[in-house]
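The passage that follows is intended for readers who have already worked through the single-chain material. We present the inputs for a multi-component assembly, then the predicted structure in tokenized form, and finally a short commentary. You are encouraged to pause after the input and sketch how you expect the pieces to fit together before reading on.
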Amino acid sequence: MYRNYLFSALFILGLSSCNPVGKELTVLELTPGEIATAENLSLKKGDVVTIWSKVLKSSKDEGSAFSVKFNIENKGQSILFDSLNVDAQDHVINSEKTKESYNQSSSEGDSTIYYTVHEYETESKKFTVPKDGKYSFDFKLTERSNQGSFFGNKLSIVLRKS
Amino acid sequence: MMNLRSNFFKNLLLFGLLSALFLTSCKRVVKTDPDEVSSADDIEEVSKAEYQQMMNLKLPLKTVLIDQRYSITIPENSDFEVSKMSSKEIILGNIDLTKIDSSFLNVSLNNFFTRSEGLYSEDVYIVPGNDPKQFSIADLKASDEKIDAVYYEDENSIVYSDGDTFFTYSIQYDSLKKCFLFYKGEISWTQKYPKKQKLELSLLLVKHAKSLMTANYQSVKFTSWNDYVQHMPVLEINWINGMFSKIEKELKFFLEPNEQSSPRTPGNYTFVKLFRPSPDELLSFYKGVDQLKANKISETDYYSRPEILRLDSQFSYQLREETGCYVVIASSKNDDGRISIKETTVFCPVDYKGKTFILKTDKDLSPSDADFFVKMFSYFSKHYTLNTTVNP
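Having made your guess, compare it with the prediction:
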């Protein structure tokens, strides 16, 4: 009898989490060397904002070393300055690999080169809102190596609230 | 059997009820922030008070001679280019200047905001004519197909919109020189700013237009960044502040030693560069300043050229020190001795929490822009922000 209730309750609980990763607040596309800002997000004390890194990597391009730093402000005061772990693999969602190709002409004739594009989102940081108010989130992507370039790869930040 | 069935229905009912409860709780009501709802953009015309307030502004002006004949008065931080017009199609509102027999002059006024960013444009047309009544604002409006709304109008000037493009026109007659001065200011629809801000700027352009023939004016000098801000349209202030909020964050958080940052403008240009130099780079910057002071430029080889202040013995330099900033004017001469290039760069060291940064203008400026940047940089080096509401 109780097992039935427990089963129903757990089943419903599962259903109720209709958005398991939280509600999307904003998406910011990052450009190397530029600060991207999500301004005036109204948040309540106890809200948990998860910073997801949305990565698009192509096997065609050599990936360069880069870092992403971020700053969270409330009323013009910085309350958290840190860097993001973009390579964290603990919680990856929306992962999709696609095969693409391009044609290359050389003296030996035309050939088709295949490469893989991997797009995924990875959970990089969680931030618990300390008090009700408006918050700004700044992100800056910096390239760390001169070899290879960020060109061909894309990095966006997705902020979700739960 | 009955008992089992009733239990099943009980469970089903409970399940249904709880499901409904949870499913409905997924929907959230998004409240709109009252601050974000704009009520100011349904303006129909400029009030007398707004107009008067703008006309009362005391702006630094200068009188310049055009084609060695005509003198016009323009804002002090503007420079100008003159071209002779004859066959080009110039239509001012509904006046077709191509129908005029004589050639006329086009004086295009430029400042930092108009030059590359193209926030707006300002042109003056000097058109010879003997009849002061030949052109009027009524002619300009004659066919109203291009005019969506008129926001301001008096006997010789008008502000109207055509879609999201705002025009400011004025027609004045110089009876001494027997010529018309047409003024045309334009803020393009491509500039996505609130209508209220575009209108305020259009009104400032009316002020510019009405100053053209002013001969006796009080000499005004802006002595601080606050002075500039109090006389600048909101659109320009917001533009600058938007850019400097990035510079401010670079200074306070993001920029690491040996890094530099040059945020892109809304028009995708560069504007100001912030350096966090290494001790060596800082030293070579001051060495360069010393060379300029001594007026002795020693040539460095290409690969070891310093990044911040790069000097070239082919140029001649002028250095001016003002409120903590360095203004460097580089000019080069053609073989015939005429100055071919004149570039102005403003530098300003900023000390923040024991770290030294250098602000540098990242565009080729004209000498008339220098003061604007000197006051801006000087304010920033003291307050680490351009937000004047925090430090009035």
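Commentary: Chain A has a mean pLDDT of 82. The interface with chain B takes residues 1, 4-5, 8-9, 11-13, 15-16, 18-19, 23, 31, 33-35, 42, 69, 71, 76, 78, 81, 138, 140, 142 of chain A (CB under 8 Å). How closely did your sketch match?
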